[in-house]
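A further point concerns the way the authors explain their paired sequence and structure data. Showing the layout once, in full, would remove most of the difficulty. For illustration, here is how one protein appears when written out as sequence plus structure tokens:
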Amino acid sequence: MAVNKVFPNAHAALDSVLRDGMTIMSGGFGLCGIPDALIHAIRDSGVKDLTIISNNAGIDEVGLGLLLQTRQVRKMISSYVGENATFAKQYLAGELEIEFNPQGTLAERIRAGGAGIPAFFTATGAGTQIAEGKPQQEFDGRLYVMERGLRADLAIVHAWKADTEGNLVYRMTARNFNPIMATAAEMVVAEVEEIVEPGAIDPDQIVTPGIFVNRIVKLDTVDKRIEQRTVRQRA
């Protein structure tokens, strides 16, 4: 019997999924490709003590910044959080835990988690503060640090297009962290801009196979924000 993966809205798609203390992967880079509607639904649910794995923490009042404002986040596992004043204030006050990762290391930790690889060695951060408390080993005369793969209870991702079976296509740079996170969680919920029937997507265009995706919600509107607008002066 076919499983219906399409839900009417983000709140319905996360119904019975969320709980206090869970670990959530959230796709996006800056504000590009973030699962904004699903983040709003998490905020509205009131769940707390969350561990969030994401490249960054959004900005004040946008993206994951919403969950920081409501103090629903206990810990962030991230690469860069410099655009969020709320994050800085809570961290400096000892109210928020942070696990910093070099950006490539974070991506590989997520990819490894999705591939069933419990740990790997990388030269990035070896011999520095990043490596404190982690096993280090020399290979071919170079020092490497062991990093653990990452998995989550839930991954929320944003895709451009999906079919009703959950096959996902991403658009340009909005692809970023979304595909690897979709492989590394027990439950994957995708918000998409368009839903088509099975067979309507060229198989060569599919990035995330539907076997990884549990629930889909189609967005009524998409607010694609620009984090920092940089333009050159006209001649």
